[in-house]
Write a structure and sequence with these properties.
Blueprint: H1 2-16, H2 19-37, H3 43-50, H4 59-84, H5 96-104, H6 108-142, H7 146-163, H8 168-182, E1 185-186, E2 193-194, H9 199-202, H10 209-235, H11 251-256, H12 258-273, H13 278-293, H14 309-325, H15 327-333, H16 339-350, H17 359-362, H18 364-395, H19 400-419, H20 422-440, H21 446-469, H22 480-515
Antiparallel strand pairs: 1-2
């Protein structure tokens, strides 16, 4: 078992260590760092833009390029958190708690180094868990039948709906919209058109996943960004980044942050394995846990929230550890854990690879090349992060009013180039408008993307189960595995409902106390 893994990894490293692949990963990481550092861009936007560009790449190079963007953006988000006190990505929001105060003391270099090493090494450990855990989980997944797979997808959708965003009910709305979009087109069993509000849509096999995902996740961000720029220009408020000053991480800082690093990595890995939780939740949970674990301050007497290095490392190791772990459900069950994973799933499908229980054995060459690339990408991420930290401070002064139009044109050209259909461009624009409306209503977009991706599989497993049971729903609680999954699903629903009610009452009491 272990011998096979190491043998496959060795072959994977042989495939990765060629000039083209390494340059591709470096380009992806640099794009990601820049996208993460500039508030309003982020990994999902850039991955969406570049997804059409991967059509002519090999499957492994396409995935590694997109993953490199994601890894770079996760790290890059901390740059603006530290230097501007404005998170470049949602996952870097918690990093600002200690990163910016540390920079305000003239120790911005230390804060950046803490975020770079915490992010890169946390991600590396998470990838090792992925490499050695995915084969075992894939073998377990092969034993699952259609009812179990249906319930697992239902569990994933429930988690995504209820844990992404502030309001679980809005998450459910988002999931339902995604499922609705996923059912547009010809029925996979009868061949009859469905939801063909526009007749031509009902005759398609399904809506183009790239047009839907890039429009929903990327174009909506551009529209929201343009709106934000307009508000800022009217208010005249702008923030200037700090200079990179002070010494870097010391040996004492590293020793003091060991507990924060390992606990953050474990929390991030667990949050990554569970679909729907995401890197933002992991970062905040890790920060809260470590603040308690350290008693609110470090041994050197620095309080959390006032520039504690372990606070920075706790957040960055956690949010980056999610990126490797969330590929475990993606590869073994075809379940994307967040919007970025949904785009990766789209890339797999574009290159004719269907993630699922058999992927590790059937596509061992490609999968282990990707795994080897993950390890190399993490090391490149650390090296390039250190190298470009000073130029990033200058890039943070760039005007997004110039960036957004260029990005939009690239999106339009990329979407049209896939199938050569203006209809896809129209769908892309419509999804961008829909995504912007959902954002204005505070409805999260990631559940909609996950729902769209999983809709066909959910329907397929349900129909297969009904066919086997001759229409009896009892098949969904007949086996022990089904009963366990249903128990977990019920426990999560009860816990989320109770937590929501408790938080609402707490907010009402706090509001009444303030008014009283």
């Amino acid at each position: 078992m272990l011998g096979d893994i190491f043998q496959n990894l060795a072959a994977g490293f042989g495939n990765v260590f060629n000039v083209y692949t390494l340059l591709l990963m470096c380009a992806g990481i640099l794009l990601g760092i820049i996208a993460g550092a500039i508030p309003g861009l982020g990994s999902v936007l850039v991955m969406g833009i570049t997804l059409p560009l991967t059509y002519n790449m090999s499957a492994s190079n396409a995935i590694l390029f997109l993953v490199a963007i994601f890894k770079g953006a996760t790290m890059g988000g901390s740059f603006s958190s530290v230097l501007l006190n404005v998170p470049g990505t949602a996952s870097a929001a918690a990093t600002a708690f200690d990163g910016f105060p540390l920079a305000a003391k003239g120790q911005s270099r230390k804060a950046l180094h803490a975020s770079i090493f915490g992010s890169g090494l946390g991600d590396l450990l998470s990838d090792i868990v992925l490499i050695f855990g995915v084969a075992t989980l894939a073998r377990a997944a092969l034993k699952l039948g259609s009812p179990e797979k249906f319930l697992i997808l239902l569990l994933a959708l429930t988690l995504a709906a209820m844990l992404v965003g502030k309001n679980p009910f809005k998450g459910i709305i988002s999931i339902c919209l995604g499922l609705l979009l996923g059912t547009v087109g010809l029925d996979t069993t009868t061949g009859l058109p469905r939801l063909g509000v526009i007749p031509v849509l009902g005759k398609l096999e399904g809506l183009d996943s790239t047009a839907i995902l890039v429009g929903l996740l990327a174009l909506s961000e551009i529209i929201a960004g343009v709106s934000s720029i307009r508000k800022e220009s009217l208010s005249g408020k702008t923030k200037k980044p700090m200079e990179i000053l002070g010494e870097g991480l010391t040996l004492r800082d590293c020793r003091e942050s060991t507990k924060a690093f390992f606990s953050g990595t474990i929390i991030g890995t667990v949050f990554g394995i569970l679909p729907g939780l995401g890197s933002s939740a992991a970062a905040f949970a890790s920060y809260a846990f470590n603040k308690l674990a350290y008693g609110g301050k470090t041994k050197s007497g620095v309080k959390f929230g006032e520039g504690a290095v372990p606070g920075v490392i706790a957040c960055e190791s956690a949010n980056s550890a999610v990126s490797g772990a969330n590929l475990i459900p993606l590869l073994t069950l075809g379940i994307p854990g967040d919007a970025a994973a949904a785009l990766l799933l789209a890339a797999f499908m574009i290159h004719g690879i269907a993630p699922g229980p058999g992927i590790v054995t059937q596509q061992a060459g490609i999968i282990y090349t990707i795994f080897a690339g993950f390890i190399v990408a993490n090391l490149l991420n650390i090296a390039l992060g250190l190298l470009v930290s000073r130029p990033i401070a200058l890039i943070l002064r760039s005007k997004l009013s110039i960036v957004y139009p260029i990005v939009t044109i690239i999106c339009l050209a990329g979407i049209y180039s896939i199938n050569g259909r203006m209809m896809d461009v129209g769908i892309f624009i419509a999804m961008g408008a829909l995504g912007y409306i959902l954002k204005k209503c505070d409805i999260p977009l990631a559940p909609a993307a996950i729902g769209f991706i999983l809709a066909r599989n959910l329907e397929q497993y349900f129909r297969q189960s009904m066919s086997v049971s001759q229409g009896s729903l009892s098949i969904f609680w007949g086996s022990t595995a089904c009963k366990v999954i249903l128990a977990i699903l019920a426990a999560f629903i009860v816990w989320i409902i109770v937590s929501t009610i408790r938080n609402k009452r707490k907010s009402q009491k706090e509001a009444a106390h303030e008014n009283g």
